Amino acid sequence: MSKLNNQKLSIFSLGGVGEIGKNMYVLEFGHDIIVIDAGLKFPEEDMLGIDIVIPDITYLDENKDRVRGIIITHGHEDHIGGLPYVMKHIQAPIYATKLTMGLIEHKLKEVNLLHHTKRHIIHSGSELKLGKFNVSFFRVNHSIPDCVGVCVDTPEGIVVHTGDFKFDYTPVNGEIADLAKMASIGERGVVALLSDSTNSERPGYTRSEKEVGRAIAEQFYKAEGRIIVATFASNIHRIQNVFDAALEHGRKVAIIGRSMANVVQTAIDLNYLVAHEGLIVSPEQINQLPAEEIVILSTGSQGEPMSALTRMARSTHRQLDIIPGDTVIFAATPIPGNEKLVSRTIDQLFKLGATVIYGQEGVHVSGHGSQEELKLMLNLMKPKFFIPIHGEYRMLRQHGKLAEETGVDSQNIFLIENGDVVEFQHGEARLGAKLPAGNVLIDGLGVGDVGNIVLRDRKLLSQDGILIVVVTLSKKNGTIVSGPDIISRGFVYVRESEELMDDSVQLVSQTLQRCMSDNQIEWSMLKTSIRDSLSRFLYDQTRRRPMILPIIMEA
Amino acid sequence: MSKLNNQKLSIFSLGGVGEIGKNMYVLEFGHDIIVIDAGLKFPEEDMLGIDIVIPDITYLDENKDRVRGIIITHGHEDHIGGLPYVMKHIQAPIYATKLTMGLIEHKLKEVNLLHHTKRHIIHSGSELKLGKFNVSFFRVNHSIPDCVGVCVDTPEGIVVHTGDFKFDYTPVNGEIADLAKMASIGERGVVALLSDSTNSERPGYTRSEKEVGRAIAEQFYKAEGRIIVATFASNIHRIQNVFDAALEHGRKVAIIGRSMANVVQTAIDLNYLVAHEGLIVSPEQINQLPAEEIVILSTGSQGEPMSALTRMARSTHRQLDIIPGDTVIFAATPIPGNEKLVSRTIDQLFKLGATVIYGQEGVHVSGHGSQEELKLMLNLMKPKFFIPIHGEYRMLRQHGKLAEETGVDSQNIFLIENGDVVEFQHGEARLGAKLPAGNVLIDGLGVGDVGNIVLRDRKLLSQDGILIVVVTLSKKNGTIVSGPDIISRGFVYVRESEELMDDSVQLVSQTLQRCMSDNQIEWSMLKTSIRDSLSRFLYDQTRRRPMILPIIMEA
């Protein structure tokens, strides 16, 4: 069992490779461990067939008796999506704000873990004692309500984890970030600040969500037919903006898409979203109301192939068709990697005669603070040590530069990777051990069983397909009793490649005969000979390299 | 044989689906056909294993005796890359400017078509008579030198095809666009303008390449160690900017990457690029010169996995390592779809200690005109009919709006797809027939043989792999003489899934026994039974759906 030095404060991320420090952060002192966030990420392009990726929690699993609590900063997937897996191993209680907990409970229910999990609702004024750690919170703004930053009093001083944040001075729900509380934490002295680096490359300030409200309202003035708004299901403030605009313009709101319906229901139940009585109508009523009296709120802002909006754009939605006169508002920007899907959807909507509002029309702002906000956080917290988190390496680096500008000693800035442990003792910090922190790939029910070999095969199969050679040999004398037969998938269009297939069969027959004239031959060598000669022949004929799988049966 | 109405002028694109009118445009009148450009495009994400995509030239092939010439506007791949395929079918002469022809010849040589192809070098003052068409040219600016727009005098009036263009009033080589000539074409009266829509969504003007020169020179002032510049091989002006900056700062230039070396050599040979004597050194000399006296010009600005820069970033380049103090300049922006590759490369370079210049530092400008330039072109040409080309549908639509603003009648704007024919007769235009204009996929030596079935199989294989069930049955009595054996690839990690595999074999055995108790059973039904029962079982156990391939041998 691995265990870190228990005389020190250790801080590390278990967020897997790629974006750094995003999905799970851990603080450890002596016998006590606390975890901040337990999120997932979506697979990279080369992780073929993988559904989601979660942090490697080997270290936590080995030390699970010492985990005093799991603190969740907010309810986005990349902060809560790993809980259905983590809670199978770790029995520690979860601490989260009301809305965040509502979303977590929905997840845990799906995997039948809800009743086995201890849950405590906190608010920005809560104070917890988790072993040697005293934990308090401060409210931050983001693209989902009820977000907190975490302040941890440790024997080595105060550590602050900002969570995802921006400063919105005119938030839709009026709840601005706890500036005074942050300032007082800073006054008490912060030994280490862990701060969100997502937008560290963007100069200036991120605009207020209230401006998005005005931009959406403006589109409502212009629209003459139906209005369809696509946004992230969890962006409750933006949905409130849509509700407000609908009420103002005498339109009803229909919600389509399962995740959108779920989140809206949770948010209304928990009073995070105010829907005037009669404002929401069922999707069935869409076609019964006049076009100018309806707003459709939908998922699909990322061009997700199965989402309601994408199906409408392709004219494959069961109930809803796009009609000329519709106005479709993309109240979101494409997440990197989704640009082409979104662009295809926009094109299809235009072709169906819709007016599409996308890009630079002010109907979206980021949920993350830009450079001036990051500097404000640094100025409030005045940390001795700084660990930029949440972002690619270059973003952490840029955030590090901002920290230097605000007066943090460049020696005291740690640009680290997941698994790197920073140790604090006697007011000093240094890079310690490296813990396992790879990606754990989830494919269907399999957790971590798909590794490099399976992925390499999927990649090969995806490029040039597979060719299977089957032959049955006699047990007695090794003569061919059946075959060779060749079957291919994903290699060539077989109906138009008969000659190639016939030639391949002949080549395999010749290879078999040549090999079998040597009585000592082993099957593995036979297979290698078939694979080599066929591979050369096929590359020569087609310049393709299908996977070749010789199967020898004995009868 | 299909043939269009020969009393009319017909205009259409054969550029495949996706971006519209990009790769090949055709004009036809009576017995005469001329082709403008013959490019390729790169495969979409869902075209697994495909190398490149070319236009469907079925129509040209059927009418090849009537093709009077192939006119190439400039030397980019999406305008010349289809020629090695097209020239196998069409014997018409190619017309292109000197640099463009140099690049074309390089391509034709590779496929042994150079000496079979008639080639004519033109310049912006050339005039051609190709059947009923009188063709002249006008110089435009773009991100490669020697670009022309095409002016075609037809019996139905003047048709103008802009090619890719922008207006650069301070071009690196001093050759500004032929404003006066364009104006005089406009004065004579243009019946139809086909104009580049790539940047129709960008307000304002595209900046001059000369500004990029200044931005690059600025980085040369700051850099203390080696400088590595990554850009598109074909951006000769930018390479000239790098040469000029190197000369000014007493640095030598080493060129790495095959395509970069090829294009630079062609451009120097043809006098499009001026390299001071002794400026260029061989890659071997890089490590012999002091760091502050070297510039490395490299491919890899798109994060291409096999490029020199990407290999240096991964520390897998044979000769070159990134060392702290290196400055790497990305003098290019990521093409949509390449964002993640580029971002990964930037991160790796930072980690190796390099200073990386990317994004908003002014070291790149687009080669395509923005909205004000598109309006300038419209004002110069004053067309009666307008066909926006080169772009996604929404860009064509935006370009159409710009045309309306400049006074083109909205009835006279054709937003068309590839294969849509616009017919001109007696001063009127209308949408005519639809010609085949799909994508032709090239995979290795195969041209068009990979279709939907093969791609669907590759997609399936890439997601959950394949499971092959082999069994040999006796010819005499149908009993099992060998197997069933199960082999899988890309499905699960077999060494850790023995139980699952054993259970699967048992399930197949049971299915076989159940089926064979019915003596009448056909093999196809046997296969279906195996596939169904195994598929259900595996989905239940793993939530994965591998391709299942039952193979029954007879011995």
TrEMBL record, chains A, B:
Keyword set includes Nucleus: no
Top EC group: hydrolase
Coiled coil: none
Binding site for substrate: H364, V365, S366, G367, H368
Domain Metallo-beta-lactamase: 21-216
NCBIfam families with a match to the protein in the record: MG423
Known partners and oligomeric status: Homodimer, may be a subunit of the RNA degradosome.
HAMAP family: RNase_J_bact
UniProt name for this protein: Ribonuclease J
Organism: Caldalkalibacillus horti
